[in-house]
Amino acid sequence: MFAWGMRWDGQGVSVDDGALPGLQRIGLVRSVRTPAFEGITFHEVLCKSALNKIPAASMLPFRYTVNGYRGCSHACRYCFARPTHEYLEFDCGRDFDTQVVVKTNVADVLRRELRRPSWMRETVALGTNTDPYQRAEGRYALMPGIIGALTDSGTGFSILTKGTLLRRDLPLLVEAAHRVDVSVAVSLAVGDPDLHSQVEPGTPTPQARLGLISAIRDAGLGCHVMVAPVLPGLTDSEEHLDDLLSRIAAAGATSVTVFGLHLRGSTRGWFMDWLAQTHPALVGEYRRLYRRGAYLPADYRAMLQRRVAPLVARYRLAPDRRSFREQAPPPQVAPTAAVQPMLF
Ligand code: SF4
Fold this sequence. Notes:
Distance between the termini: 26 Å
Bound molecules: iron/sulfur cluster
Oligomer: single chain
Structural class: alpha/beta
Largest sheet: 7 strands, mixed
Shape: globular
């Protein structure tokens, strides 16, 4: 955690005039705090590029991502993106949750990149590193511009979120789905409200996310649900999975993916500290499960799939059938008006 000198004025917005070298490297314009987002500092940057290319060796089903934010106030203890904050000279713990980098020009830069003749309109994944509908999106509204840029260029996209703010953009997503492939997924793996407030303290409640699933379906879009990460000893009982999958099915989800927790890099220490404080009896079991590395052992993964398969069948939830293929050439249509980020 770093100390950040703040000055409060006028409407309660403060601007900092110092900057960490890591932030200067990525185009810091200013750092601001506002009472509406207590405890959170937004670092507004002008990014030079928006599309990130995933290394070819990656096992991921998409090759391009866009992330308008770095850091995430959803603050999930297990978040695998935490170590990325260390490149900015922040720590992977509280800083990741409270020092949020905002690429205020991301939609304009993306629009420019998508105009390149070399762009093959491969599916772009949103929400792979930080949540595009975390609370900051209510203030900066980056997503309408990103959705508009992708749609106008004929590029299909997928969204993965825990954020109920996505409801705001449902009309835009429905319109986009008439022109390009759009895939929407909600992440929901903790059904117990007490555990949710411990392990995903900045996220909307499980009930609110079930409501989001229903709203997505009511809008006429499919809704995949990522039941991940399943936490050994906390959310992997047949009882918890049965209850959660039945509620996900009742909310109208079209398909689910279920997999267990990965613990890698500095996230491991941040998660294990939390586990030692809140569930000390499980520490030994986690050490045993993750003694060989970031992934759960094969026998645990096989056990989880055996437990989940009959439940997925019982609730008639399909496996992930989303496609991440290239798009056909775009039709000639008038561009959607670019939406400027709302700074205040
Ligand atoms: S919502 Fe996603 S990106 Fe945000 S903290 Fe949780 S796991 Fe990380």
